[in-house]
Amino acid sequence: MSAQRTERLLNLLIALLNSRYGLRRSELREKIYAGGAASDAAFGRMFERDKNDLRDFGFDVETVTDLGWSSDDPGTTRYRIGKESNRLPDVELSPDEWAVLLLASQLWEQAALGTAASNALRKLQAAGGLADVELPAGVQPRIKPAGQAFEDLVAAMHAQHAVRFLYLAGSTGREEERVVEPWGLGSRFGQWYLVGFDRGRGAKRFFRLSRFTSAVTILEREAFTPPPGFNVRAELDSLPELPVRDAVVDVRSGKLLGLRKRGAVATASREADGYASPDVGADAGWDRLAVPYRDAEVLGEELASYGPNVRVVGPAELAAAVQRRLANAAAFIDAPVPPYSLAHAGSGKRTRKRTSEDQLKRMLQLVPFLVRNQGLPIEEVADRFGVTRQELESDLLILICSGLPQGYPDELLDIQWEEGHVFISQSMELNRPVRFTVDEACALLTGLETLNGLPELAEGSALESVTLKLMAAAGEEGLRAAALSGPEVGPGNSANLEVIRDAIASGSQLHLVYLSAQKDTLSERDVDPLRLYSMDNTWYFEAYCHSAAGLRNFRLDRIEDLTATGKPVSSGLKPDGGFPAKLFTPNDDDTLVTVQLTARGAGLADDYYAERTAPLPDGGLVAEIRFGNTAWLPMFVAQHGGTARILEPEAIARASRDWIGAALAQHKG
Prior knowledge:
Elements: H1 3-17, E1 23-24, H2 25-31, H3 40-56, E2 62-65, E3 77-80, H4 95-105, H5 112-128, E4 141-142, H6 147-159, E5 161-168, E6 175-188, E7 191-198, E8 203-208, E9 217-223, H7 232-237, E10 245-252, H8 257-262, E11 264-265, E12 286-293, H9 296-305, E13 310-314, H10 316-334, E14 346-347, H11 356-372, E15 376-377, H12 378-384, H13 389-400, E16 414-416, E17 421-426, H14 438-450, H15 455-458, H16 462-474, H17 476-479, E18 484-485, H18 494-506, E19 508-516, E20 521-535, E21 538-545, E22 550-555, E23 559-568, E24 591-597, H19 604-607, E25 612-615, E26 621-627, H20 633-639, E27 644-648, H21 650-668
Parallel strand pairs: 4-20, 6-18
Antiparallel strand pairs: 1-3, 2-3, 5-6, 5-9, 6-7, 7-8, 10-12, 10-13, 11-12, 14-25, 15-17, 16-17, 19-20, 19-23, 20-21, 21-22, 24-26, 24-27, 25-26
């Protein structure tokens, strides 16, 4: 969408909103499209396309005809937009409801739905105002979507386009191409699932995103209509959980403490699980373990990361999963490095390129926001909308030139910001926010549903009441939120969580015995706990570690022992930054590592807070990421099985190559 078209759409919208009886096509062509359409046919195509765009933005163009005349007669047909039918209803929320809603919106920090949630919150603020609230102490959950595939599937699902991808079939173990109508996405048993119509098989199917072996291609010319009343939660409730099986693995003596904690010494009774009985124990220097698991792909990802320190005895399905990941990682490492340049790369979080369509959507949110928040500093307005001051001023310059066709000065939008504060005195019927889009409704309503897994929120009335209010405000778009379902976020170890929460509230120090998976060691630490948060159902707490003399993040499921020391906290630190907490806090003395990611693994740039990214023609990217400990990066490359490799420093790239080569030799041996 060009800038010229953006201005035209804005003027068309204002004209149709401010016309009581409607405007004829001839009037619109003369006043809005003057000089833009060389013929009646060209004007007709342009006008129809613009009506579709306005519909995408939430405005339905009504057709009005004179009594007794046909709607096919352009001379008697008029067009207008109703002032109420396209607007978000006023939603009055209590402080407790706002607090719950803020938590729900912040679940989607590193997903496309995070932008949708922010947009929805701005609309609610413009409709009813944001109360001064405090987030509940120690309750900061968030959702970790399943990589780039999740982003692409959500986009296809809401646009109702079919998708194509390569899939590792669980029944055959073969990689197959699938063309699917994506009806819904949901999380069950710690895994994300796609539910949709498989066109090749002519039936509904369930697909685990962990078994996708390629990027998702959206087939923009392949439309579909989902079944009426589809609810992904109900569909996933019919799925049986995979049975627990035992894998037999050899582990180097003294290595992999976390895996040993879950496993047990293997015995001959494992023969029934489908592989040769391990009557002969592991070689000298190795220990043979039986490790319970449900999903071979999930365990295979973990075991691949351990490289030459583990080898799979059985079952064959698991051994194949590990070897495939290692072989893919080796192939990616050996592939030619594409040309790239980080000299002018964007900094901060990876974002898609801004378009004129994004600008118009933002301006439609900006006007009601300014009406509700008169006199804000221009820098604060820009920060609220996630743009630079220059981008915001570009929006404002377009807005002040927009209004009724050939209108007088009082028939144009009137906005001033010369003194560094933004005021608006004429809004031309754009003073109320547009109704929620499907993405916005999904982001908030799915987030609220996910919070039901937290007992302290589910037991209160605010969660239920704000959900009902948003369902009523969202209308039809709210019903489509049933196509998305989040994971459980309840803690697995509630005892440790309560001890940490009490220590945070009382300002007490804790002593813990902690398993560091990266270093494969147990350590004892005294820490000052600062806050709790979660990633899906994995809970963490941020604390000042006296041993490390700095902030650290600890997983609750890796705490071997936890006790109160009886001492008050002594660091004097507060939680660093706003919500949500970062799993990785880069420091200036960290190693700057250049990582290449495929299109399938591009989301890792956000997960590890890349400082700069440079896009590649194939949809992948090169990212610069700071790591405090680089010794585990060969594990990182092996785990991601051909979607990530180290380019610089050369020593780390070489270590990754050697690690994966040794692992492949170990498994083939």
